[in-house]
Amino acid sequence: MTGAKKRVTIVGSVALDSVETPFGKEEEVLGGSASFASLSASFFSPVNLISVVGKDFPEKYIKIYQDHNIDTSGLEVKEGKTFRWKAKYHYDLNYAETLDTQLNVFEQFTEPRIPSCVRSADNLLLANIDPDLQSYIFKTIKPTGLVAMDTMNLWIETKKEALLKLLKNVDLFLLNDAEARQLSGEDNLLNAATHIQSHGPKMLVIKKGEHGALFFHEGLLCMVPAYLLEKLHDPTGAGD
Q: How far is it, in rounded angstroms, from Cα 207 to Cα 203?
């Protein structure tokens, strides 16, 4: 690769997470799909973050974004409280038991303001949010760069048709193994991948938690292992 690094625009949730695992407990730490994806992407390219928080969102977390070269001009601060998620992990850290979800200002995050720093030529990640919101962002930005999209079981259950319609415009689709089976109706992941890619995405990543991920492009291209740690305290956001 030569020249300046291409920017990536990331649209998703920013939250305050309260998480308990067998190894510890934290209250109201930085969370949300857009947070995890933006911080990860910042090691490789400049990032535009588009999301919403309440007036109670700690300034120290905004500083974390800015220290990682993440442009926060698309992070709207509205009257009200920030999205909150409370969960508990047991010894199987692949699955979280949701104890409480408070959407707060994120519930009205339906037509976000697109900051002037965002360009159609940027790469775009539509993180795990409502497919209708993902579609709005896509139509507003009119991206010409790489378009990636994530989803979850809730949207597969409630907005499957909107999700499948949007997949026609997606270059890279990401979901976990349970979601791949749910969306495709196939138990075998190879068959599930073939079915999902028939709806449009050129590339597909099926995430398998601690067992890594499968990458498909014209069939199974490679299997990527997870990075093993001796001590794992909180897996939240690892997929993002």
A: 13
Strands 147-150 and 172-176: parallel
Q: Is 177 exposed, middle or buried (0-12, 13-18, 19+ CB in 10 A)?
A: middle
- Amino acid of residue 58: P
Residues 129 and 101: their CA atoms lie apart, in Å, by: 14
8 A C-beta contact, residue 144 and residue 175: no
Q: Are 90 and 54 in contact (CB under 8 A)?
A: no
| Residue 21 parent element (H or E) | strand 15-21
What's the mean pLDDT in 167-178?
96
Q: What is the mean pLDDT of the chain?
A: 93
Q: Which residue has the tokens 């709207």?
A: 76
8 Å CB contact between 33 and 11: no
What is the end-to-end Cα distance of the chain in Å, rounded? 24
Three-state DSSP class for residue 52: strand
Phi-psi region of 139 (alpha: psi -120 to 50; beta: other; left: phi over 0): alpha
The H-assigned helical ranges of 68-188 are 131-141, 153-158, 160-167, 177-184
pLDDT tens string 122-148: 999 999 999 999 999 999 999 999 999
The three-state secondary structure class of 117 is: coil
Kindly give, in sequence order, each residue whose CB lies less than 8 Å from that of residue 234, ignoring residues fewer than 6 positions away.
19, 21, 23, 24, 26, 89
